[in-house]
Amino acid sequence: MGDVLYSLYWTTHYAKGQPFDFILKTGVADRFDPSQRPHLMEPEDAEFIRPLLEAQPYINTVEIESVNRTSREVYVLDSFRQDMRRIIGKEIRTWYYHFRETIPDGEFDRPVLTLHETPKKFERIAICFTPRYRQKFDLSPLKQYQDRLVFVGLPDEWRSFCSIWFSVEFKPVKDALEMLRFMRSCRCFVGNVSGTFAIAECAKVPRILCLEPNRGNVRVYNNGFEASNPSELEASLKHYMGELS
After folding, report:
1. CA nearest to 203, candidates 1, 6, 27
2. Which structural domain range is residue 195 located in?
3. Are residues 171 and 63 in the same domain?
4. Is residue 46 located within the same domain as residue 132?
């Protein structure tokens, strides 16, 4: 999901203000890390993200196609996977080199995901931590906000977090659009590299990315924080939440 969302910086820049159609391919084999997942996107993943894409004013239609179906696509966003050596260790939004056009960092400061409405704010912190990358990150600063934390992500991710750290509330959502609405109702979002963080980053939700030093391929652009240790995480939380009384 994250790859699809980050590609919107390139597609919107390349389209130069013109609406376009978006096609989600399912069943494409993950040749880079098949041990983690057999396919880059399953049909249920595509259905989950589809409403969020359809809600964007610059997208005409969103279609879901299996890998074996021939479509009218013009630009294949997954072309970078043909030579993974060119992207290893590089920030994810530089992966779309096959567009043969460079976009400045300033482009990444703008949101590419928006909502038509403005949800009411609550004193909550949305969180999501996926065990996929097996990072050793100390999340103990979150403990003092335990009664305000709400996990938004996959049930397995939530159970993993609770078993390792402490119990938090779980927020089920039916799709990525509802997930963004919930994030917008919170004071901030905290998480590691994941599809859920990609939603927060691309919408410029107030956010904190927990990332070990020199690890990962995602950066935070504009009104957000990167925390590489507990002290930075605690300081970032205080910025958004203030001092607890």
Report:
1. 6
2. 125-241
3. no
4. no
